[in-house]
Amino acid sequence: MDKAPTFKTGPDREAVFKPVRKRPPTPEEDREHHRFLCRAAWKRCRLQKLKRSPMCERCRKAGDPRVPAVDVHHVIEVRDAPGLAYDLANLESLCKRCHGRETRTRQRMESRRG
Ligand SMILES: [Zn+2]
């Protein structure tokens, strides 16, 4: 009855979960990402993820399952795999600290490869 809305993607999701290019986003990609984050559909998807997984997944893996998650992170970025933007399997619930660390790591990787 109260089936949760699904955010499914196409049949070839295996194909999208593969290494992707890494480079800093262009200003246009940044703007597009910002627009994405403002979308109501994303806000719903994000809330659904936090409801299912309210604790930080990284802290849990590191041994502390009691850190509340506040951010939802795309494992594969939206610009690299738009089809996975609303796929719960591509989302990670993170606390502020873990999300900040993830963002810094990614930026470092991107600027190194340039
Ligand atoms: Zn954490």
Question: What labels describe this entry?
Answer:
114 residues; mainly alpha; two-stranded antiparallel sheet; globular; binds zinc ion
Main sheet strand line-up: 1-2
Instruction: Give the biggest beta sheet.
Output: 2 strands, antiparallel
Tell me the radius of gyration. Answer: 15 Å
Which hetero compounds are present in the coordinates?
zinc ion
Topology, number of strands: 2
- The proportion of strand residues reads 5-15%
Helical run tally: 5
Structural class determined from secondary elements: mainly alpha
Instruction: Based on Cα principal axes, name the global outline.
Output: globular
Tell me the helix content.
40-55%
The string of secondary-structure elements, in order, is HHHHEEH
N- and C-termini, Cα separation: 50 Å
Describe the structure.
The chain has one domain (26-113). The chain is built from five helices and two strands. With 114 residues, the chain is mainly alpha-helical. The longest helix is centred in the last third of the chain and has 18 residues, at 96-113. 46% of the residues lie in helices and 7% in strands. The model is unreliable at 10-16 (pLDDT under 50). It has helices spanning 13-16, 27-38, 40-52, 57-61, 96-113, and strands at residues 71-74, 91-94. The chain has a two-stranded antiparallel ribbon. It binds zinc ion. Residues 56, 58-59, 67, 94-95, 97-98 line the site of zinc ion.
What secondary-structure arrangement, pairings included, does this model have?
Elements lengths: L12 H4 L10 H12 L1 H13 L4 H5 L9 E4 L16 E4 L1 H18 L1
Antiparallel strand pairs: 1-2
Bound molecules: zinc ion.
